[in-house]
Amino acid sequence: MQKLHEHIRGGILQLVDLFYPLFRRLMPHQTFRYAACGGFNTVLDIGLFFVSYNYLFLKEPQHIGWITISPHIASFLSAFLVTFPIGFYLSRYVVFQETSVAKKVQLFRYFIVVLGCLILNYIFLKLFVEVFGWYATPSKLATTVFVVAFSYYMQKYFTFKAVEAGAD
Asked: Under a CB-based contact definition with an 8 Å cutoff, are residues 37 and 151 in contact?
């Protein structure tokens, strides 16, 4: 299993780093890796949202027992089930490799940050779709702008915070 992990991680790093020279003057290496991995996971999230909303849930409310979930909320939750583990893997093993925080602590912190992202997604989707009357997919795109900024800051300075040299 460790060999498979190293093979996958190495392949992802090679692919991502292949394009870094094009962006070297614009951003630090770690920021580029975050943008590439986060960009992939964001495109996957939006794609899964679109497919779930239009083809899985057929733009209809979902009734689960006594709870009814709007199709745009059900779609973002279903996409989350796929993108949460992928995002953690990419963040831990590709972007923020130089951390001294234990994996269990990182996973818990990552979950807390992602919970914040879920809440922001929920609030912005409700606002854009139900208050402003926007279509669901453009609402998801607009929401993503806010959530990505929040996520990057929190992942860098909270979840995968690197310990400074000489710090206790």
From this structure: no
